[in-house]
Amino acid sequence: MKTTAIEIEDKVDELLDVLDKDIQRLQESLSRLNELRSLVVKRDDTNLGKLLEGIQTGSDSYKCNELKRQSIREELAAVFGCNLEQMTLSVLEDELTGEKKAQVAERKAMLRLLTDRLKKEHISTAMLLSDCARFNNVLLKSIFEIGRSGTITYDSKGFTRSQTDGGFVNLRF
Q: What value does the mean pLDDT take over residues 154-173?
């Protein structure tokens, strides 16, 4: 019986380490999304490339952490006599007592908070990129349709006028 308790405690400690890495990863993701939005607005292609390289480099450590979490979940599920899908932090929290229970609850709350923030930041970033794509499409469409007949533009007073000149774009700054 004592061996099982010690085994559970060791596995919980390992799981807490994995969860700490997950928390760190979520915080880094939030930071990267903020940086991504900033670089898109600034149109900084060089640093966008560096950011992408950093994301790709970190994906291996994420995979390793994910495999370790799954392995610990499998072992804990076997100890508690449930299947893998049932072995969640909430179930683990219910099975534990004392300090370990509080630590698991703290990590679970932090993960929930960070994932909610990440969802919001992801939506904000997706909206920004969508607006950029829409703006670019409108801009390109207006550039390539300027010389065509039937193109209607609006002056500063809101009146329409047909485009008659065949000018394209002056690229001088």
A: 62
